[in-house]
Amino acid sequence: MTNHNQKKNNILKNLICISTIALLIVGIIEVEVQAADNKHISVQKRIVSLKLGQATNINYTANQNNDVEYYSNNRMVATIDPNGNIIGNMIGSTTVVGKDKGGDVLETVVIVYRDLLEPLSEISEPRYTLENGVYTNKSAKNTNDALLMFTGDLMCQTRQQEAGKTEDGTYVFNDSFNMVKDIFSKADFVAGNLESLLSNTSPYMSEEKELGGQPHCNGPSTYLDALKYAGFDALVNSNNHIADDGEMGILQTLDLLEQYKFAYTGSFRDKDEQRFIIVDVNGIKIALMSYSEDFNEKDITLDEDIKEVMINRYTKEAIEKDVKDAKAMGAEYIIAYNHWGEEYTNDYNEDQAKSAEEMANAGVDFIIGSHPHALQTFEVIKTRDNRKVPVVYSLGNFISHQYKPVTKDNFILTLNLKRDKEGKVYLADEGYIPCYVFEEYDSIPYLVTPISKDFNGGIENSELNESYMRIQDVVNATMPEITSYSQLKK
Predict the structure, then answer these.
(1) Of 1, 86, 135, 228, whose CB is crowded by the most CB atoms within 10 A?
(2) What order do you get walking across the sheet with 277-281 strand by strand?
(3) Could you please report the per-residue DSSP string of 342-371?
């Protein structure tokens, strides 16, 4: 969400997640964390998380017995006594500082968290289950004809969380997808970019919307109830917020994606994990990949030995290897998301164009962009081996709390794949379904609304009309518009 060109020194300024970069003490101070009941204590690189009301102890010890003066930057969140005993008072985060007589300083982020929320309802079984490395829909027939749908950024931001919070302390977002649920039900496979962590051991964005001057994207786990309700089969999550809450934030998000039975790719636990997924859709094997070109410099909160394992940084070499590996596993059509570009503009830039050309020449068949929070154009790249590779430079925000008109316009991308008589898979046609995000409509907050009256039940107003004109200007007749259910495969 931050400006891609923001200077590194501004990004690092006051970044509490990484505390003191060089530790200032050149290795003579160590951190020891002790607790009587340590099953609720987690320790990451310069981050300690504890439950609300829990006490723990942080000792800053040196080779010599220097006295240490402790203080907390926010006593409302957590307090620390002269002996290093900490207690979590309020959900949120603070920095605990230890300073010895020699002037050496060490800082540790303390995060006070809540219990994990229960799912809103029983988690339904997915259409696609993993067998022998491939996600397969056992109830589908091998028709060799697949309708795929893709969306842009699935944000879970401050005002969405505030609107979704219930009296009993849970969060409900389902109604935001009421208007698109039936559209997705017509697809054989649906995927989108999950641009939020879902970590209960970190503050939600509604509690701390920024960390170190950067937007902090973390939301309640029940956001996944809404995405299940909407009909998503898979989520990609390589983006500039994936490291917002360090290693623990990534691991907890992956745990939840598995609990809710989503296929996913874009962040990982270990080096042996496959860096993409393969989905068998009606007999056509499709590889889905997810990369990011920016991590808001928060990737330095991850230890060096796991950094490039857990996140999926875009490089020419990475895409070439992944395409080769996917084809070796039988992938017949390759779709890749890349998180790139400038924010809040409908214009893509030279860096995006360069990466898109690399991806196309590496063997990707369709390229989807995310991150700008605005729609960007569609074009076709001709590769060195004379293939034609379409790219949509950005699908915009599928849902967010952002208020600028450019951030409310989006579309659902539809791809229809078929197999020809020679057995080769090809893109029979592509299309788009224009959508708009109302801040509120008919008492429903952040309602994703298709602009076509056939899809939205007859809604027509000035906001939708203005959005439609903006979307038309961006697409500029480069792909067919889909305006009715009759145009979708049944």
Answers:
(1) 86
(2) 129-131, 134-136, 277-281, 284-292, 333-339, 366-370, 388-395, 375-382
(3) -TT-S---HHHHHHHHHHHHHT-SEEEEES
* DSSP assigned state of 168: T
Question: Residues with Cβ < 8 Å from 275, sequence gap 6 or more?
Answer: 265, 268, 289, 312, 318, 322, 325
Instruction: State the DSSP string of 7-59.
Output: -HHHHHTT-TTT-STTTTTTT-EEEEEE-SSGGG-EEETTEEEEETT-EEEEE
Predicted local distance difference test score (pLDDT) of residue 291: 98
Encode pLDDT of 308-327 as tens digits: 999 999 999 999 999 999 99
Contact predicate 102/110, CB 8 Å: no
pTM score, whole prediction: 0.86
pLDDT bracket for residue 5 (50, 70, 90): very low
Query: How many helices (H) and strands (E) in the chain?
Result: 11, 27
For the record, the structure tokens of 452 come out as: 């076509």
Nearest to 206 by CA among 153, 248, 163, 151: 163
- Greatest mean pLDDT among 90-104, 202-216, 413-427 lies in 413-427
3-state class (DSSP) for residue 468: helix
For 223, the 3-state DSSP assignment is: helix
The helix/strand/coil state of 401 is coil
Q: How far apart are CA 207 and CA 224, in angstroms?
A: 19
Alpha-carbon distances of 280 from 265, 330, 490, rounded to whole Å: 16, 10, 19
- pLDDT tens by residue, 42-93: 445 567 888 888 888 877 654 344 578 889 999 999 999 888 889 999 888 8
Q: What is the mean pLDDT of the chain?
A: 89
Distance, in Å, from the CA atom of 35 to the CA atom of 20, rounded to the nearest integer, reads 24
- 173-200: pLDDT as tens digits: 999 999 999 999 999 999 999 999 999 8
Q: Which two tokens stand for residue 7?
A: 């200077």
Tell me 374's DSSP state. Answer: S
Parallel, antiparallel, or unpaired: how do β-strands 214-215 and 277-281 relate?
Answer: unpaired
CA angle 25, 51, 74 (to 5 degrees): 55
**Which residue is it, tokens 């028709």?**
143
- 181: closest CA among 464, 407, 456, 443? 456
Longest dimension (CA), the chain: 80
Within a 10 A sphere around the Cβ of 21, how many other Cβ atoms?
Answer: 10
- Give CA separation, 99 vs 29, 32, 60, 67, 212, in Å: 10, 15, 9, 8, 21
Residue showing tokens 């641009």: 195
Per the CB < 8 A criterion, the answer to whether 52 and 40 are in contact is: no
Cα 165 to Cα 160: distance, rounded to the nearest angstrom: 9
